[in-house]
Amino acid sequence: MTMSEIILPNNWEPRVYQTPLWQHLENGGRRAYEVAHRRWGKDDVCLHYTATAAMQRVGNYWHMLPQANQAKKAVWNAINSHTGKRRIDEAFPLSIRKRTNNNEMLIEFVNGSIWQVLGSDNYDSLVGSPPVGVVFSEWALANPAAWPYIQPILEENGGWAFFITTPRGRNHAKSFYEMAEASDEWYCEKQTVADTNVFTAEQLKRIEQELIAGYGIDEGKAKFQQEYYCSFDAALPGAYYGTEMVNAEAQGRICSVPYVQGEPVYVTFDLGWGDSTSMWFWQIIGREPRVIDYHESSGGSIPAYAQFLNQKPYLYGKLILPHDGEHGRLSTGMSYAKQFRDLGFTVATLSRAASLDIEIKLTRQFIPMVWFDKEKAKQGLECLRSYHREWDNKNKCFKQHPKHDWASNGADGFRTGAIAHKEGLMKPTTVTKKPMMGSGQKGNWMSN
User: Fold this and answer.
1) Between the CA of residue 158 and those of 31, 62, 93, 405, 432, what are the distances in Å?
2) Rounded CA gap, 164 and 191, in Å?
3) Tens of pLDDT along 314-327?
4) pTM of the predicted structure, to 2 decimals
5) Strands 288-298 and 316-321, how do they pair?
6) What is the DSSP string of 281-331?
7) Helix or strand run (H / E) with residue 190
8) Mind listing the pLDDT tens digit for each residue in 242-285?
9) Using an 8 Å Cβ cutoff, are 254 and 246 in contact?
10) Average pLDDT, stretch 118-146?
11) pLDDT computed for residue 292 by the predictor
12) Distance (Å, rounded) from C-alpha 357 to C-alpha 117?
């Protein structure tokens, strides 16, 4: 069969319940958000649409999973259980390909378009030509900062973006759904097992029983409600701070929290070079710890972070680093704390806690005291909602340590704040103006 005889989509047509989404895409829709139950066929729809789009417009197309190490199993090597064939081979027949690179999980088509499977966890380090079409798969588990980074690219080149997911608690996927549902520019829908005929009642009953047996009654029921009835209200299984964050929202402590002029701002850190660095900005007003701002970025140096802090309108009390902030670094011969001090900041480091479990317990006790700025701390709030224990598939239980993903750095930086508050490092201090030293930048904060 020659390429001219190939009809796309290749030997596939949408199921009845997939048809409205497919029609939106075929009619030129550029934004879509599909919240649907397991086995709905979300990735299939996106793969087959990408094949048709890539042959009509030459460009780069990305299919993004939350983490790069998920991509091979979830998409690149995924087998269609009904046909026994790889899903990418069904969507992208060999006759429309110029080359296939298994190491990079990349396909180049005969017309010059390129499709690649990637992880959204390193969205800001992706190189090459920008995409004209992006699929965000498992959006509820992805780093929400990936979309603001990619969005301007697609706006400029008229590209499209499709988000597919099942819920994972009341995190960014929920607020994103509310945004898309209210917008005339988005196709947005939520389909549960009650809306399709994928599972029988007997199958659903058995699935729920098996989830309860594997996860326990509370976690199992929550997982069943999320994955099959698309509930945003069911708690994220294994979430450390799920209950505390739900209560914070219900009690109105996630709101507009203004900066109080003349009062010191404390910044608590989780510093990372391979990972992101997170910064939480605090004020202690009376007995209230208030989060007024949040920032997260990767690849910066201490002088770059100092310059960033210098651009904020805040009067700083202390920069508070984790317990290893005083340790010397091979790259500079100086600790993080000394580098910040040389740039004119007052710096404190935490004493080392007995264990991570104790620190997390302390953080749980601390959250009910805290007020959060809803907009400026939005990304940090998503980290706290999504921070969770890792599931051990072999032993069918949660591991004793957190899952390391996009939420970890923000959660760690907040935990620094909880410990700092307990240790008395975040108290109102006298703030005076003093130039920063050693960076060539004009400084305007120093704490006595």
Assistant:
1) 11, 15, 27, 31, 50
2) 11
3) 999 999 999 888 87
4) 0.74
5) unpaired
6) EEEEETTEEEEEEEEEEES--HHHHHHHHHTS---EEEEEE-GGGGSB-TT
7) strand 187-191
8) 889 989 998 999 999 999 998 999 999 998 766 789 999 999 99
9) no
10) 87
11) 97
12) 36
Which H or E run contains 232? none
Inter-residue contact 12 to 90 (CB < 8 Å): yes
DSSP state of 375: T
pLDDT-derived band of residue 227, with 50, 70 and 90 as boundaries? very high
- CB atoms under 10 Å from CB of 67, counted, come to 20
Query: Which tokens in the block code for residue 74?
Result: 């979830």
Predicted confidence (pLDDT) per residue in 342-392, tens digit:
999 999 999 876 689 999 999 999 999 999 999 999 999 999 999 988 776
CATH H-level, domain 3-191: superfamily: P-loop containing nucleotide triphosphate hydrolases (3.40.50.300)
Give 281's strand partners. 267, 293
Instruction: Give the pair of three-digit tokens for residue 409.
Output: 């750095």
Q: Is the bond preceding 402 in cis, omega lying within 30 degrees of 0?
A: no
CATH second-level architecture of 250-447? 2-Layer Sandwich (3.30)
